[in-house]
Every structure is written in C-alpha cells, then in structure tokens.
Amino acid sequence: MPRRRYTPETDPREKIKDYFRKFIAFMCSQVGVGALVVCYTLIGAVGFSRLESTFNDTSVTKVDLIRGNYTRLLWLVAHKTNVFNKTEFFIATNEKLKCFQNEMVVVIKKGYNGHEMGKMWTFPAALMFALSVITMIGYGNLVPRTGWGKFATVVYAVFGIPLFVLYFLNVGEILAGCFKWIYTKLYECSTRRGEKVHKRIVVPTTACLWVMGGYILTGAIMFAEWEHWTYLDSAYFCVTSLCKLGLGDFVPGTASQNGNESKLVINFIYILVGMGLVAMCFNLMREEVRVKVEEFREDFRQCLEDTRVRIEECCRKYRHRDQF
User: Fold this and answer.
1) Is the distance from CB of 160 to CB of 44 less than 8 angstroms?
2) What is the pLDDT of residues 46-56, one digit of tens each?
3) 274 Cβ partners below 8 Å, 6+ apart?
4) Which of 52, 122, 219, 295 is the least crowded, having the fewest Cβ atoms under 10 Å away?
5) What's the 3-state SS for 227-287?
6) What pLDDT digit, counting tens, does each position of 258-286 carry?
C-alpha cells in the first residue's frame, strides 16, 4: 500500500505546530497576558491553600495551656496569701503575670496571632497571598509555614513576577490607548471648529492624577464602610497597596470574621485593576515627558539658531563699520 503523502496544509504535525504558535502568540498578547495572570493566581491560590491547610499549628493549644497554668497559679496565690497583706499579694501576682507575659512574647514572636494557621488559608486568603507575591506587595499578614509552602512560594515568585511585569506593560498600553482616544474625542468636542489646530494631542498629567485620585477615593470609601476604618486609614491602605509598599498594618478581611472571603476577592480585583491604571498613567505621563523633551529640544535648537544669526549680524555690522 503506497505511503500517504502530506502537504504542509494537511500535515497533522504542521497543524499542531501552527495551533501551538497561535496559542503562544495569543497568550503573549494583551488579552492573553491578563487571562494568564488571573489563571496563574487561581492556580497558586489552590496550591497554597492545599499545602498550608495541612500545617499542624500547635501554638493555639500551647497558649491555652499557658493560660490555664497561670490561671491556676494566680488562684493559688489568691488562696494562700492573706487578704489583708496587699503588698505580698501584689508582689506575688505581678511575678506570675510577668512570667506569663514573657512566655506569651515568645509564642507571639514565633507567629501566633490568635488564629489557627491551617484554618486561615481559605481560597480567597490564598488568592490574595498569591497576588501579593507576584505583584511584590507582600502584606505579610499571611505567610507560609510548611517547608513545601515556602519552596512553592519561591518557585511561584520566580515565574510569577516576570509574568506580572509583562501584564503591567501590556495592560498599561491598552488602557493608555483607550483613555487617550476618549480624551481626544472629548477635547475635539469641547473645541470649536474654527479654533481647531492640527497638532498632536497629549493627555496631561493632571488628567492622570484625577483618574488615580478618583480610584483611590472610591477604594477609600469602600474599605472605610466595610472595615470601619477612618477615611485616612482607607486612603493610606489604597496608596500603599497600589504603590506596592505593602506595609501590612491594614489588610481587608482581618478585622472581623464575617464576610472576609468576599472582601478579599474584591480586594484582589481592586488591586489588579488598580495596577493596570497605574501602568496606564505611567505610559501617558511618559508620553507627555517625551513630547515636552522634544519641544524643549526644538526650542533650544531654534534658540541656538537665532543666537547664531544675531551673532553673524553683529559681526557683519562691525565689519561694515571697520571698512568705513
């Protein structure tokens, strides 16, 4: 039976290679990179929640034992010490309380925060942790305790940070183009036909500041209502998060136990969209700086040319005067 011959159009291997090339090109596009970042954080959230939920946290049991032990010791002090001897009673109780405080300091330094670490690693909390890793925010309120969790964090960060940088650049370019188109249309509508000048329209820095100010104000009002923070604290959290400082003293979902998961998911969306807006403003402000530099270069060149012409005219006048 003669062997079947494939042309490049009908060869299955070539079709698979072509599909694979198209898939890679799509994933490297603006839409593909955004979808890849979301999928990457979802996969990371599932992995971290599975790894850290198996952590055997003995700190809660240890704290309960310490409290029970010192409660018993204080009861013995109150039982043995004469009620009328206040000095001896205060000395004995202060000594026990100081020992209790020292033991609690040791436990807290090891990471005790009043919650079992295994139960804190819900899917929304792990989702927020995964986003804080690849965006380099790093709130620090939730950290891996298992060896595999720490190893997974290192690998996840090595591949996730370059992916987020690619997302930052691509999404910033898309949003900058959309915002510039909207600004151009509004500028043309607000300008009379007779006054229109055919020149390059550049989005001013003030427009970018208004956009970021409005976004921060929205987040400040939203988190203040949910978390019962002051508006200053909410704005402080939004700015430190969008600037990738991640101080960790304010994190949504940690003040109460009700509605934590929904708050963390909305915080995830707020930070991801906000990073895109920061990238947009970065692109628009960079374009304005480039245009200003070009204008300054052109003005400086024209100034040098005018200076040269004036010097030549002066030299010509002096030469003409010397001839007479």
Assistant:
1) yes
2) 999 888 887 77
3) 215, 219, 238, 241, 242
4) 295
5) HCCCHHHHHHHHHHHHCCCCCCCCCCCCCCCCCHHHHHHHHHHHHHHHHHHHHHHHHHHHH
6) 446 677 778 888 998 999 899 999 888 88
